[in-house]
Amino acid sequence: MTAKLLTILTGANRTAAPSSGSMILVHDLYGAMPEIHTIFLGRAPVDQAWKTAFHRLITLSTTKRPHGPDFNPYVDELTREVGALIEETQPNAIHAHHLGFALSLAFTRAAGNLPIIAIAHGPDVMAAERNARDCALLYEVAAASAAIVAPTSALADRIDRLTGRRFTDRLTVIPWGIPLRDVRVSDQLSIGTGPLSLVHAGRLDANKSTITAIEAIAVSGQPHRLTIIGTGAEEEALRERACSLGLRDQVAFVPFLPRQELWQRLPEFDAFVFTTSGSEAFGLVAIEAQAHGLPVAYSHVAGMAETLGHAGTPFTAGDAASLAYALDQLARDVYWRKALIRAGLDNSRRYDITHTARQVADLTTKVVSAPA
């Protein structure tokens, strides 16, 4: 007799499209779990190609409202909608992504006796570290969860500290991954010394500290070129800074690219620059770069050394001179670049999305099968 598929209710309170790293991740994750029936809650408009990873995608009707005086009534309304969907879909378990955000709160408050696995992404933990109210909301979701997943031990420890180490036994580390089967590494061209063609990709916000990369180009000993791929609140300020430093011909801006297009472009560059200055949950884009044969210069923040190990070259977070030194060293030392390329390729092979999916699926089965 064929075993009945587990049904998981999950979602993200965002446009149901590959608009951010976390949305790309959840698409990959559930697409790699065909043995689990996934119902995903998201926001319209829906990317029709993107939705294929889920057995069913339901668009939320409750109007999204940010933190403020309307937040509590908003969560109440969202909880009622989620409760009705739980009644309709009859899932075996809930995956609550982004601890303490509105949808994870609604899942928590509507779940009843359904087991919950909370899955942290980073911005949720950062919000809880900045604000006592957000910390209380994260605590509420953690307390209601049978298990809490974090992609690195560094992020797991931050959650543990935020929750007073009351749920240590519920925390489990499951590294993120990418669909390595789709990666195509070109034969490495001959590598010589000289200025580098660099790429930075990701959301353009203050924490990503893209300005460090721009200022490093200005103080570098070689005329490196930098392409910045992404959009965000800091874009205008970054453009102005590049102009004020006289870098019009060395810094180029490209809007957000869907991952397939980004992956096609990565082999055009000599190295990848990862500049997050505050904290980072995992740094998946750095793994994508390594998988395509790019050496990575990364800011030495919590979690990144765990993700990259010795397969990247670190610099002091937020320090343009430190990054410039690392880039100039890469440009001068051909053997060092080649060693980082080989180490990066080996490192990226640790992070296949099929491994992530298997661990999440096994944890879900364990939680569902546990005695009430």
3D architecture notes:
By secondary structure, the chain is of the alpha/beta class. It folds into 2 domains: 6-177 and 352-369, Rossmann fold (3-Layer(aba) Sandwich), CATH 3.40.50.2000; 182-348, Glycogen Phosphorylase B (Rossmann fold), CATH 3.40.50. It contains 14 helices and 13 strands. The chain has helices at 21-31, 71-89, 102-110, 123-130, 132-144, 153-162, 210-219, 235-244, 259-265, 284-291, 304-308, 320-332, 334-348, 353-369; strands spanning 6-15, 36-43, 56-59, 93-97, 116-119, 147-150, 171-173, 197-201, 225-229, 251-254, 271-274, 296-299, 313-315. The chain has a 7-stranded parallel sheet with strand order 3-2-1-4-5-6-7, sandwiched between helices. Helix 7 links the parallel strand 8 and strand 9 (225-229). Helix 2 packs across helix 3 (102-110), helix 4 (123-130) packs across helix 5 and helix 10 packs across helix 13 (334-348). The longest helix has 19 residues, at 71-89. The chain is globular, with a radius of gyration of 21 Å. It starts with 5 loop residues before the first strand and ends with a helix.
Percent in helix: 40-55%
User: CATH superfamily assignment of the largest domain?
Assistant: Glycogen Phosphorylase B
- Report the top-level CATH class of the largest domain: Alpha Beta
Count of DSSP H/I helices: 14
- Principal-axes shape call: globular
Q: What is the average of the pLDDT values?
A: 93
The SSE string, one letter per element, is EHEEHEHEHHEHEEHEHEHEHEHEHHH
